[in-house]
Amino acid sequence: MDIKNTLLEINHELQSTSSTSKLDSELLLMTALGVSRPYLYTHGEKILSVSEKKVLNDLCKRRINLEPMAYITGIKEFWSREFNVSPATLIPRPESEMLVEEVLNLYALDETISILEMGTGSGAIAISLALERPKTIITATDISSKVLDLAKKNANKFNAHNIIFQKSDWFRELKNQEFDLIVCNPPYIESHDDCLLDLKFEPISALVSGKDGLDAIRHIANNAKQFLKINGTILIEHGKDQEKAVNQIFISNQWERIKCLPDLRGFPRITMAK
After folding, report:
1. What are the boundaries of each domain within the chain?
2. Rounded distance, CA 138 to CA 182, Å?
3. Can you tell me the distance from the alpha carbon of 89 to that of 239, in angstroms, rounded to the nearest whole number?
4. Hey, what CATH topology would domain 78-273 get?
C-alpha cells in the first residue's frame, strides 16, 4: 500500500480511540518512515516496504492501546522546542510553560542569577530557562540517574551549557547551596484520583504525592528557605483545585508575599512566595 492510502487507513483505525486521529496518523507514519510531514504529501505514491509496514503496525497498536504519542514518537514540544522524552519521564505539559514565563518576567535578560529546578525530568523547564537567560546558572536535580541522562541529552541537543545536573532526592544532596530562585513542578495528584486511569503510561512517582497529593509540596515548603538567598523566591506548580491548601502550607511555614497565579484558562496554577 502507498503512503496516501496508508494515511487514510490509519486515520480510520484511530478514530474510535483518538480525537486527533489525523495528526496521529501523520506522526506515526513519519516516525515509522523517518521522514518529515511534507514528505508524506509529496511522495504519496511511494509503496511501503514489508519492514516499514511492520514498524508502522507496531506503532499503531501502541496508539490504539492509548499510549501517549509523546512516548511513541519520543518527542514532545515545549516552549517551541522538541524535547526527547521517554516513559521514565513525565510528559511536559503546556501549563508548565507558565513557570518559564513567570521566571522571565521576574528577572531581566542581563541579570546573573542562580536557579534550582527540582524534579527536572526531561529538562524542558531548566533548558528553556537556560536558553532564554544565558547568564543564569541553573542547577537541575532529579532522583533518577536514568532521567538525568535524558535531560543531559536534551541539554546537549540545544547547546544549553549553563546547567548543572545533579542527582538528588529533593534537597537531600544539596549541601550548603543557596539560590535566588527555586522552580518546581512536583507530583501533586491524590493517590486515589480517577484521572490516574488516563495516565497509566507515565511514571507514578512523578504524578502522585500522598493521599491528598500535597506531600511533596509540604516537604518543599518546609525545607526550601534554607536553600534560598535573602529575598529569594519560590515558584511551584500545583493542581487547579489546590490553591487554598497550598496557600495554607506556605503560611504555616512562615513564607511571605504568597500569591497564586492563574494559567491561560484562568485556573489557579502556580504559587509564588518569598
Report:
1. 3-66, 78-273
2. 10
3. 19
4. Rossmann fold (3.40.50)
Burial grade of 132 (CB within 10 A; 0-12, 13-18, 19 or more): middle
| Distance in angstroms (rounded) separating the CA atoms of residues 122 and 120 | 6
pLDDT tens-digit series, residues 110-153 = 889 999 999 999 999 999 999 999 999 999 999 999 999 999 99
Residues with Cβ within 8 Å of residue 266, at least 6 apart in sequence: none
Q: Tell me the backbone φ, ψ of residue 259, rounded to 5 degrees.
A: -150, 150
Cβ–Cβ under 8 Å, residues 165 and 140: yes
Kindly report the CATH class assigned to 3-66: mainly alpha
d(CA 186, CA 218): 11
- How far is the C-alpha of 210 from the C-alpha of 192, rounded, in Å? 9
The SS3 assignment for 233 reads: strand
Reading the block at residue 162, the C-alpha cell is: 549553563
Count Cα neighbours of 263 within 13 Å in the Cβ-side half-sphere.
Answer: 20
Number of other residues whose CB lies within 10 A of the CB of residue 146: 10
Residue whose entry in the numeric block shows the C-alpha cell 541539554? 155
Digit-coded pLDDT (tens) for 197-220: 889 999 999 999 999 999 999 999
